[in-house]
Amino acid sequence: MSVPAHRTDKRLFFGIWLDQALDVLSPAKGDWLRSENVEVRLLRGRFLHGKAFIVESGHDGVLAGSSNFTYAGLSRNIELNLGQYQPGVVGEVMDWYEEQWERSEPYDLAALYDERFAEYSPYVIYLKMLWERYKDELGREEPEVGLPLTGFQRDGVFRAMDYLDRNNGVLIADGVGLGKTFLAGELIRQAVHDRRQPGIARRAGGAA
Prior knowledge:
The chain has helices at about 20-25, 30-35, 70-75, 85-105, 110-115, 120-135, 150-165, 180-195; strands spanning about 5, 10-15, 40, 50-55, 60-65, 80-85, 105. It has about 210 residues and is an alpha+beta fold. Strands 1-2-3-7 form a four-stranded mixed sheet, with helices on one face. Helix 7 (about 150-165) packs across helix 8.
């Protein structure tokens, strides 16, 4: 994350990872970002990795180094930052800043605060959770099964097959009476009957 550079002429340049910034700043910052004291721009196309504090107060200076503009970067981590007050060096840094500023474009950072901290009904949140969990399964083909399974059991077989393909194993842990035996039976049927693979089934506490 690159450190924002603050200008006394009411300009603010953000070259930061916005997700991290939104996590550490409060919703009240949205009002501050809309004020006449702040202008936000975004640099696109290249990753801005430079980190510097530029001070313009009659005795100009710059503090540049490895610290990210985070709590860890400014308090816990072992960082190396150097301060420069030589007019020539500070002037070059300011020129660099102005170059990045001109390359950037206006950006409505306050709108992200509005969206992130907006109040939503529990039902909308529930729908959003369902979408994030199952969006990749929409439009999928129904798996062919050989045992008489209900719709939700077919969904369970599909997810179990997906886990098997990705992890070479799956643990089925539905509640009592939801058909774990049928799901396991269908997986065994596919392995032994459809793919002709050897299979071993064990009873709980019993022999194979």
